[in-house]
# Entry
Amino acid sequence: MIDALGYAAKHSFSRLKPLEFQREPAGAGEVEIAVLFCGVCHSDVHQVKNEWSNTVYPCMPGHEIVGRVTRAGDRVTRFKTGDLVGVGCMIDSCRSCPSCQAGDEQYCEGPNSWLATYNGPMLPASKATTGENIYGHDNTFGGYSDVLVVREEFVVRIPDGLDPAAAAPIQCAGVTTWSPMKHWGVTAGSKVGVIGLGGLGHMAVKLARALGAEVTVFTRSPDKEGAAQAMGATHVELEKDAKSQLEKMAATAGRFDLILSTVPEKHDINPFVVLLKRDAALVIVGALEPMAPVDNQQIAFHRRSVAGSLIGSIAEQQEVLEFCAEHGIAPDIEIIPIQEINTAFKKIESGDVRFRYVIDMASLAREKTEA
Amino acid sequence: MIDALGYAAKHSFSRLKPLEFQREPAGAGEVEIAVLFCGVCHSDVHQVKNEWSNTVYPCMPGHEIVGRVTRAGDRVTRFKTGDLVGVGCMIDSCRSCPSCQAGDEQYCEGPNSWLATYNGPMLPASKATTGENIYGHDNTFGGYSDVLVVREEFVVRIPDGLDPAAAAPIQCAGVTTWSPMKHWGVTAGSKVGVIGLGGLGHMAVKLARALGAEVTVFTRSPDKEGAAQAMGATHVELEKDAKSQLEKMAATAGRFDLILSTVPEKHDINPFVVLLKRDAALVIVGALEPMAPVDNQQIAFHRRSVAGSLIGSIAEQQEVLEFCAEHGIAPDIEIIPIQEINTAFKKIESGDVRFRYVIDMASLAREKTEA
# Structure
């Protein structure tokens, strides 16, 4: 067994604290990874506080991981010791359902859906139709730790030229906005709206711009206007003044090919639905909960859709990393030591982060030395 | 001017009563039609009672019309006196916006959207951004009348072999379910769910079956089970017993390529969303109002969509009439004299109709003789 150290919460109301635990050494087809950096996603906060009512404790978050391979298990073909690699939200899936066979592991239809990097299977045995747990894990410990062991199909390569710390959030915030833009066909000249300018939103803006789209940001934070423009947003609409917002929106009604909602909680999407072109979709990638009622008149009259999209496939995770390397795109990050994680969580909840915290896992080593 | 007679409501709380009025004679490009039959759509009830808050009075409904051309105006090229023709929900559109140019007049983006067969422009001047009314009508009188005058681009041909009375509802109930099935790619082997087995629902079942799809009906009326099976539904799931419903649904979870909600009012679609395959859509064609909140977790986890669709194009109206003639499909109708329209409205509201009332407009002539 590998002695490991991470930061975990023991209850929904507890702070993250150091936790010593053990990981199985790399078996056949698996690699051991020394974690260098781990992004802090808003979903980490939701999960730690059991806001989706599915948290398994102790909860050790972290699914935006960059590290270095320290050992490759038997029959590993794609990675060797020393490789700079990434791990995102998934570390396994059933690998046999139609979605997995189509390379869309994030939509795995196996009895337990996919295996999350932390918090275990998306459908735990207790909720699976079969009552089975094909992964044998009720819980998994994520990237807020010094070491990970992951099967190689769920490990990606960090391309040369990407800052390893900045590469971390691309694997969730990046791919979560990349995947729907590819699926709904964003291309040069597309008009894309982005609701919310946080971790996901700011990556959506950068990626859409690099794809050649014209991007409009909808934010309630007037102080983010400059940042949005610097990232390439052509228009910035402020949501704060409802009246001017509606007037502005009326002027642009019907113009978007795709609107992504990156807001991490329930909100009213009706003011945005009316801004979609015929046959265009508003895709919710930020919130996983019941949304406010949607007026079907505005949907039906232009054959619009409200859809959702979940992270992206492993292939898309690799693809967006390469796209970022090629186009010189990176998230705006603030590097913190893991000892500041509880403060960071509070700032994320109050929206006081620009735009992604990334934990420098070297800070964890200090703790080990002290222990 | 043409002296005309129809049935109209003067207020939201009044019964439909005979109303004498005048129509402009056919101008260039227009045809005069003697109305033979007119279907009674649930939307007629909504409109008469001002349930969408947009009714103009007097309100003379009727948009499932079959009649005979009695005169063709100048420059009419497609129709001549004696032709058996149909008119559906639309009698004009801006004819220049991208949607109209694409042959999707039902999604007209002109200042007043399309011109409805009754109740005037979809966007009246008071609600149009420009304040204009490109049609010059604040109100239009529909097919609950003896004569119509319509420009020929919005008139379709009733194919030989279709019963004229049964052809009437195909132009709304038929095309409204046909259009989304074509748009979302229903084909042989598709698995289609139909929520509600009324005027729209029963046409959806027949059309989907004729396209080669496997059809499941969701209805709260156990006494409609036999009818659904006779129409070709392979499965009939009853919504009445919530527990058995959920058990049955769990067994079929994730199996539908398309689900059409034909229920003409707000309802909870969440139990149906979970039955969609990855990338599949639930399309609402029955209700034009805010729907119950939808859980985005069930949407995002399989990249599902909730969409809406509005009637169909004129080309699709012609297409579905021909498809019905070719496949021997017709709605199940009950022919009534117009004098029974108020009773029919009550039965539609209580769900006590199988499956479409069609007014035999010969009954109106009796009234004229008496007058």
